[in-house]
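Structure (tokenized):
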């Protein structure tokens, strides 16, 4: 991502925020995005159940919500929100996508990916909103990226979900993946703390 593109994006972002404040509030931006919907914790527990090796992933939204995600169901360029089966809690929300294997670079943990599948926490590190998958051009970003609709943070899907723009203070934690009986599963827990942390870090 060139500095020029990031500058362009920040300019666009400022204009949007101005418009939101002056005219119609959150709805002004809401109409520009493809929302995944509001994700609620199924269990209602306050303490997150840790994700462990072998936990199969299920769709978190849409007509297939609750169904296991088969590797054959997700083609290159596609992404979805997912939960570890049986641990459907907000802080366990996962953004899963598939890319070409050679598209990933550091700091993505390549050994956490599997056949082009890669997963990050879907909870923004800024204030905890649910992030979204953008496979195509948006603003000046003409490549797949993760976007937070609350304050427009942008994360680099191919490089460890590092922050490209916006107020998010750190990357989204990555989840190690494996494929079990043709179903995408976790190979362990996230590699870092989920969502905003004390002190804004
Ligand atoms: S909560 Fe995501 S950018 Fe603020």
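Design, position by position:
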């Amino acid at each position: 991502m060139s500095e020029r593109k990031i500058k362009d994006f920040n300019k666009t972002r400022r204009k949007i925020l101005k418009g939101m404040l002056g005219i119609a509030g959150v709805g002004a931006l809401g109409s520009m995005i493809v929302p995944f919907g509001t994700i609620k914790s199924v269990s209602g527990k306050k303490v997150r159940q840790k994700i462990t090796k072998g936990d199969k992933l299920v769709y978190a939204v849409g007509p297939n919500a609750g169904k296991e995600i088969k590797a054959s169901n997700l083609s290159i360029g596609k992404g979805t929100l997912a939960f570890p089966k049986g641990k459907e809690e907000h802080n366990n929300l996962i953004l899963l996508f598939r890319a070409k294997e050679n598209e990933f670079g550091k700091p993505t943990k390549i050994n956490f990916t599997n056949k082009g599948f890669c997963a990050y926490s879907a909870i923004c590190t800024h204030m905890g909103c649910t992030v979204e998958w953008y496979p195509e051009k948006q603003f000046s970003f003409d490549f797949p990226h993760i976007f937070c609709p609350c304050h427009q943070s942008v994360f680099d899907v191919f490089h460890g979900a590092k922050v490209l723009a916006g107020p998010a203070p750190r990357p989204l934690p990555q989840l190690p993946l494996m494929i079990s009986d043709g179903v995408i599963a976790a190979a362990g827990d996230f590699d870092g703390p989920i969502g905003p942390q004390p002190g804004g870090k």
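Reviewer-requested clarification: The first strand starts at residue 57 and ends at 59. Residues 124, 126-127, 129, 148, 150-151, 153, 166-168 surround FE2/S2 (inorganic) cluster (CB under 6 Å).
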